[in-house]
UniProtKB/TrEMBL annotation:
The keyword tRNA-binding does not apply. Residues 458-533 form the AMP-binding enzyme C-terminal domain. Residues 47-407 form the AMP-dependent synthetase/ligase domain. It comes from the Bacteria. One of its GO terms (molecular function) is ligase activity. Keywords: Ligase. PROSITE patterns: AMP_BINDING. Residues 1-20 are annotated as: Disordered. This is 2,3-dihydroxybenzoate-AMP ligase. InterPro entries: AMP-bd_C, AMP-bd_C_sf, AMP-binding_CS, AMP-dep_synth/lig_dom, ANL_N_sf, ATP-dep_AMP-bd_enzyme. The keyword Ligase applies. Pfam families: AMP-binding (PF00501), AMP-binding_C (PF13193).
């Protein structure tokens, strides 16, 4: 298969030419025959459950309670709303909604209309959201007016100003809280998509500029969701509590919202991640499964000792996004009364899970095994040579639901993918003789803060833009709650900025809050290597001291 021409952008930033590389049809059919790829669209997976259990509770969010029949009708009605605003098959629809019923309804409405949802967290900085909208060439957007203390109305105005955006809607414009009409609206029963079509765009990395856009098809995302559901024992009796942001890949497909709804279970959306809020929902909705990042686990364990809530329904607590320290992992079972399941994966594809019924030592000290028999993993040294089991090396992977290239950024593919199609994850892992993976670090100059990848160089550029900063270096340091915290070493004129100074400065420039260093240290000078580069190995030692 010859390489397609690279896409180009015009003066308005619009892309022309191939923007992503679909799997060749012959290979896709081979994967389907092996049971490693879905023939159905995401909308068809939902409709299968609508036919099987129309009156079963599908979605709970605040005072909204939708059966599968309700969800189906709302999704179709919202698909009509999108069509009315000019959304056509293949168009991109940006969703920046948060943990609300409208996120789920709009997601399925978009795919039902043949459009491509672009999933964005409301915590992403305005400049980043706008850059994503330009890179994805979105035709419409659904944007919440307020998320916590953050006002997003100015963001909505700036999106309306983009030349390719035809409509910006508010969640309330989707009218999810009204009673669905008794008869299906126009277009019901019709999907404007094929299983091998682009299904959604999700985001990876990036703290300034444009985060990378990850193209996922119905066929690979549906398989990812269902394989994950099987690994977690999810079926119609499952009640999944979405504590983490609904637009995050972990929350969407591990097995998350898509996996649970494609399996006939119930999804409950939590408005915030606090254990007080979550425990009340666990008791009220009889939640069986939920997911956290390591940073949230200690607070949950502390609250579990004093909560009056009945947590007896909770069977599995998933923890992923960063490495959970072994000591905290061993506390989960005894203190929460449920089984820990560690999850390791990436929005680009590969998902790994520990076996809920497996050895406690393996569950508490590893991040599991790939979910699919079709997943291929290599652990290699700096020359891409395989290393022995137990030896740290970079994880490379390819498989039936791992992407083969980024969207609209073909120049990245020669860096992030090998010549034979393996994705370079940037994670340093060890592999046991039984195939269990343990994450021990990162190859690239990044900080993995509670599952969010922070590019150190991008933050350094922001810091150096300040007139009082003459030198800047950002490194990660181990943290029992965050996995890693970001530490900024600054050479400054004068007393130097505090962390609060940096927070006001960076967020005031529209940068996502995750870019703000957790710790700031003023130093007389940055240590250098023999070739004159900043010696980050020494800085990491300083940060840990």
């Amino acid at each position: 298969m010859s390489s397609p021409p690279r896409p180009t952008r015009d003066a308005q930033g619009l892309t022309h030419g191939p923007t992503w590389l679909p799997v060749p049809r012959t290979h896709a059919e081979h994967l389907v025959k092996r049971g490693w790829r879905e023939r159905r669209t995401l909308s068809e997976l939902l409709r299968a459950q609508v036919r099987s259990r129309p009156e079963h509770l599908a979605l709970v969010a605040g005072d909204v309670r939708l059966t599968y029949a309700d969800l189906d009708l709302h999704a179709e009605r919202c698909a009509d709303v999108l069509r009315t605003h000019g959304v056509q098959p293949g168009d991109r629809v940006l969703l920046c909604v948060g943990n609300r019923a409208e996120h789920v309804v709009a997601f399925y409405a978009a795919v039902r209309a043949g459009a491509v949802p672009v999933l964005v967290l409301p915590t992403l900085g305005d400049a980043d959201v706008r850059a994503v909208a330009v890179a994805a060439e979105v035709s419409a957007a659904v944007v919440v007016e307020r998320q916590g203390r953050r006002d997003l109305r100015d963001l909505a105005v700036s999106l309306r100003a983009l030349p390719h955006v035809r409509a910006v809607l508010r969640p309330q414009d989707l009218d999810v809280r009204s009673t669905p009409r008794a008869t299906p609206p126009t277009g019901s029963g019709r999907d404007d998509a094929d299983a091998e079509d682009l299904a959604l765009l999700t985001l990876s990395g990036g703290t300034t500029g444009t985060p990378k856009l990850i193209p996922r098809t119905h066929a690979d995302y549906g398989y990812n969701a269902l394989a994950s559901a099987r690994a977690c024992g999810v079926g119609p009796d499952a009640v999944y509590l979405a504590v983490l942001p609904a637009a995050h890949n972990f929350t969407m497909v591990s097995p998350g919202i898509v996996g649970v709804l494609s399996s006939g279970g119930t999804v409950v959306l939590s408005p915030d991640p606090s254990p007080t809020t979550a425990f009340a929902l666990v008791e009220r909705e009889r939640v069986t499964l939920t997911s956290l990042v390591p940073a949230l686990v200690p607070a949950w364990l502390d609250e579990a000792r004093r909560t009056p809530a009945d947590l007896g329904s909770l069977r599995i607590l998933q923890v992923g996004g960063a490495r959970l320290d072994d000591a905290t992992a061993r506390r989960v079972g005894p203190e929460l009364g449920c089984t820990l399941q560690q999850v390791f994966g990436m929005a680009e594809g590969l998902n790994c899970y520990t076996d809920p019924a497996g050895s406690p030592d393996v569950v508490c000290t590893t991040q599991g095994r790939p979910v699919s028999p079709g997943d291929e993993v290599l652990v290699v040294d700096e020359q891409d040579r395989p290393v022995p089991d137990g030896t740290p090396g970079e994880l490379l992977t390819r498989g039936p639901y791992t992407i083969t290239g980024y969207y609209g950024a073909r120049e990245l593919d020669t860096v992030r993918f090998t010549a034979d199609g393996f994705y370079r994850t940037g994670d340093v892992v060890t592999r046991s003789p039984d195939g269990d993976l343990t994450v021990v670090g990162r190859v690239k100059d990044q900080v993995n803060r509670a599952g969010e990848k922070i590019a150190a160089g991008e933050v350094e550029e922001l810091l150096l833009a300040r007139p009082d900063v003459r030198g800047a270096a950002v490194v990660g340091a181990p943290d029992p709650h965050l996995g890693e915290r970001s530490v900024a070493f600054l050479v400054v004129d004068g007393p130097g900025p505090t962390r609060e100074d940096l927070r006001r400065d960076l967020t005031g420039r529209g940068v996502t809050a995750i870019a703000v260093p957790d710790e700031v240290r003023v130093v007389a000078g940055l240590p250098l290597t023999g070739v004159g580069k900043v010696d980050k190995q020494r800085l990491r030692a300083w940060a840990q001291a």
